[in-house]
Amino acid sequence: MKVLVPVKRVIDYNVKVRVKSDKTGVDLANVKMSMNPFDEISVEEAVRMKEAGTVSEIVVVSIGPQQAQETIRTALAMGADRGILVKTDEMVEPLGVAKILAKIVAEETPDLVILGKQAIDDDSNQTGQMLGAILDWPQGTFASEVKVDGGQFHVTREVDGGLQTVALDGPAIVTVDLRLNEPRYASLPNIMKAKKKPVDTKAPEDYGVDIAPRLSVLEVSEPAVREAGEKVEDVATLVSKLKTAGAI
Ligand code: AMP
């Protein structure tokens, strides 16, 4: 079985994001970038399937600038086999990403595409679903467990108030949630080995996909600053203050 894993290069989750003064977006200059945390989980899941003998090849894809090759190398160091960098300096919206991935799926014919449930930079939570629609493939979103059963995938999904398990006939799309697994750190020898694994470089035009944005961002702003708290003497004062503030 062959698995395709799309991985996105995003601002590292530990970085405190700064909004640009003209409010057109966030400041990316000199900011640490890393693999989208949900994509680390999907790479880990694919690698575990390979270790279990159900998967024979893992191909990772990243659509982004030249530096996205580092994100691909990280996935290769975790255990993926080869990479495809679709190089562009433009911001590609989920629909553009899904269209490029659909073309790659047509070329690579994977049995499973496993993506993050969302990218932590745009929080879109759209790409996997759009890819499912374009390909007309079954999809299991927000997976907290994935079991391979012959040509079927049993996906346990985190839904409001519980878990739902669905069976998908492959080829299929799975998007992963936080509790699916704990991704490994790549060991130094594997980081060295990953440098020798093949990475193809392509461009969106190679796939005939128009990535021109369809949305225009009107404004990006900082979240409202929380007001400082206040200590009160007793419950009666608390209730009276809350009443005055209209909170109760
Ligand atoms: P989103 O729909 O933007 O929240 O992203 C959901 C998932 O789609 C991510 O976790 C990635 O697996 C994949 N994805 C989104 N954008 C890209 C990209 N530029 N390159 C590779 N994969 C991507």
Which features would summarize this protein structure in a list?
alpha/beta; two-stranded antiparallel ribbon; binds adenosine monophosphate; 27% strand; 248 residues; 27% helix; Rossmann fold; single chain; globular; nine-stranded mixed β-sheet
What kind of sheet is the major sheet? Answer: 9 strands, mixed
Shape: globular
Total helical segments: 6
What would the CATH topology be?
Answer: Rossmann fold
Order of H and E elements: EEEHEHEHEHEEEEHEH
The parts where pLDDT drops under 50 for at least 5 residues are none
Hetero compounds: adenosine monophosphate
Task: Kindly describe this structure.
The protein has one domain: 3-Layer(aba) Sandwich (Rossmann fold). It contains 6 helices and 11 strands. It has helices at 37-51, 68-78, 94-108, 127-135, 188-194, 235-244, and strands spanning 2-6, 9-11, 33-35, 57-64, 82-87, 112-116, 139-149, 152-159, 162-169, 172-176, 199-202. The chain has a 9-stranded mixed sheet, sandwiched between helices. A two-stranded antiparallel sheet has the order 2-3. The longest helix has 15 residues, at 37-51. The mean pLDDT is 95. It binds adenosine monophosphate. Adenosine monophosphate binds at residues 6-8, 36, 38-39, 61-64, 92, 94, 97, 115-116, 118-119, 122, 124-128.
Describe the SSE topology.
Elements: E1 2-6, E2 9-11, E3 33-35, H1 37-51, E4 57-64, H2 68-78, E5 82-87, H3 94-108, E6 112-116, H4 127-135, E7 139-149, E8 152-159, E9 162-169, E10 172-176, H5 188-194, E11 199-202, H6 235-244
Adenosine monophosphate (AMP) is lined by residues 6-8, 36, 38-39, 61-64, 92, 94, 97, 115-116, 118-119, 122, 124-128.
